[in-house]
């Protein structure tokens, strides 16, 4: 058995996969705040597989963790996981002795890319575009996660697509994230609600001019990210995941429409058939936790994927 955890800002998802890569157990729990609480969440999550999912913990051979923030190359040290209250934490040192198995760590979006690739069939080149509070992507080509020279491959959220557009949190104007990031949309919407982006879509359907502008901007930002990912790595498919994709076809229809409209003036862009190369991650898919389990299965994440 191999265990993977997707440690999110509010909840943590834990899965166990068997030798064939089949999910044998799955639990969810609240995520603690701060390094000590995050450590307890991971340990408790693994143990919950035994208590709640009936997994034989003696059969667990590895643990992989997908977590927000930056992962120092070649280590299990996470830094700047601000949504978890973690400035710096060596997860292998913190949880490894308690669990008694190797612990490996990856950024949550990159872990989700590996998991989505496996769920999609594990062939070709796939880009996973995460639409949550921010916007980022993970790229898997030929079964290998592409990180780039400094681990920044896939940071498409901070590509400026409109120099006169809204100011992004990074300081630039018109970044993809400034249009499509859930956090920015919520701020610009400025109305309280449990699901601000869904509220924006509902208000747009009702004819609210401000909501219509925000909704169009979201579709424009996502479409721009899809174009970037196809034009730079020629991904066979761009899979959309993250919290915003809970909108389902309401989001996908807008994005496909924007891709089609933007290609009208270019025979080359039409030839790429971008509308046919974008999909939604199926609702409820544990992509990040699955990817983390694959990462934990071997010293090399790509080896874990190839043999998982």
TrEMBL record:
Keywords annotated in UniProt: Kinase, Transferase
Pfam family, one: ROK
Molecular function terms, GO-annotated: kinase activity
Gene3D superfamilies named in the record: 3.30.420.40
Record keyword Lipid metabolism present: no
Listed SUPFAM superfamilies: Actin-like ATPase domain (SSF53067)
Family: Belongs to the ROK (NagC/XylR) family.
Protein name: Putative NBD/HSP70 family sugar kinase
UniProt source species: Microbacterium immunditiarum
């Amino acid at each position: 058995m191999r265990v993977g955890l997707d440690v999110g800002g509010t909840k943590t998802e834990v899965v166990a996969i068997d030798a064939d890569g089949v999910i044998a157990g799955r639990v969810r729990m609240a995520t603690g705040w701060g390094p000590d609480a995050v450590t307890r969440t991971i340990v408790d999550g693994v143990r919950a597989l035994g208590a709640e999912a009936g997994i034989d913990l003696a059969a667990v051979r590895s643990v992989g963790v997908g977590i927000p923030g930056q992962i120092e190359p070649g280590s299990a040290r996470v830094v700047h996981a601000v949504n978890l209250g973690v400035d710096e934490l060596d997860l292998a040192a913190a949880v490894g002795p308690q669990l008694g198995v190797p612990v490996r760590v990856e950024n949550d979006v990159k872990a989700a890319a590996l998991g989505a690739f496996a769920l999609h069939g594990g062939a070709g080149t796939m880009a996973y575009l995460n639409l949550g509070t921010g916007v980022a992507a993970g790229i898997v080509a030929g079964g290998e996660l592409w990180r780039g020279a400094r681990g920044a491959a896939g940071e498409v959220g901070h590509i400026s697509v409109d120099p006169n557009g809204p100011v992004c949190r990074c300081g630039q104007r018109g970044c993809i994230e400034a249009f499509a990031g859930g956090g920015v949309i919520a701020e610009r919407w400025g109305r309280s609600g449990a699901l601000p982006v869904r509220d924006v879509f509902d208000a747009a359907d009702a004819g609210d001019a401000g909501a219509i502008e925000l909704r169009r901007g979201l579709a424009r930002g996502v479409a721009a990210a899809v174009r970037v990912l196809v034009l730079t790595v020629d991904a066979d498919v761009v899979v959309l995941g993250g919290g915003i994709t809970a909108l389902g076809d309401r989001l996908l229809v807008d994005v496909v429409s924007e891709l089609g409209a933007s290609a009208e003036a270019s025979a080359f862009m039409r030839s790429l058939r971008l509308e046919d190369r974008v999909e939604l991650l199926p609702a409820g898919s544990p992509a990040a936790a699955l990817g983390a389990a694959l990462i934990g299965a071997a010293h090399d994440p790509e080896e874990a994927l190839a043999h998982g």
